[in-house]
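Collaboration report, partner site 2.

Our partner group contributed sequences for two proteins of shared interest, and the home lab folded both. The records are reproduced in the order in which they were received, starting with the first partner submission.
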Amino acid sequence: MFTRPEDAEKAFYKAFEETDLKMMEKVWAQDDAIVCVHPNAPRLEGREEIMESWRQIFDGDSGLKFFLSDTHYIQDGLLSIHLVKEDVEIEGEFVAVIVTTNIYQQTEEGWKMILHHSSSEPEYDPEYDEEIPITIH
């Protein structure tokens, strides 16, 4: 049981790094209203679909390590929203910065993840991108 949302988040990244499906299953809520968006992938909904995605991701030993930065946490009542940047390394080499939102909900079984949404951080070239709006909507 995760008594704090921060504990659930630590378990999430530990499960990811160690490709531990059992731990990943403990992190996520049992609810079919949960949502997951992996970088450059379609939205997944429901526990079965999300756990299948983790099974596929964990098929191989990826050697991923995550270093969280630029963290911002908002907690109100039964929800805790974590906005983070993931600096991702594979076998000790930097590969990407991922912008992520993780949302946890307090349940009878403790804090559980109900949303994980990650996308690649856009590259920004001030000289080239000067005339392009930064936001799409």
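Second partner submission, folded after the first:
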Amino acid sequence: VIKSDSEPIAVAALETYDGFVKGQFPVRRRDNANEIVEQLSRTVGGHFHPMGYDLTAMGLRPVAGLVREIDGRKVLVVIYQGPGGALFCYTFIGSETDAPPNAARFFDAQKKINLYAFSRGKVNAVFHREGEVICILASEMPMKELLALAQSKAKPS
């Protein structure tokens, strides 16, 4: 359980990325993406599901999932890995007020959604909302690439 008195939930979630890279979180690896989604969805009683992105074109595949509790809210985390490194997809119920206040905001006129880009150390992240669900993609890939990826995968609210 992570308590973040001053940080928005989006920034606190990135602690999971750092912890995983450092080997601090035991995760059960799975070969089946559907198993990961089912396992995570069960932990929140099916109220919401992790964003299920197909990132195989980038050489990334889902390898594990975990649930973090941040400020009393459950955050579903799907971990993708490939030759280019790791990418985390965080999903939780929230609103755009959960985006860090200093994040750069980009409006996608075609999809009519806001995307928020921010960084913490070497980790870049892009936050967007689909209905009541927030998705944050986090990776050490260059921000421009991560933003383009998030934009291509995001669905209009």
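Feedback sent to the partner group on the second submission included the following. Residues 54 and 61 are 8 Å apart (CA to CA). Residues 9-21 form the longest helix (13 residues).
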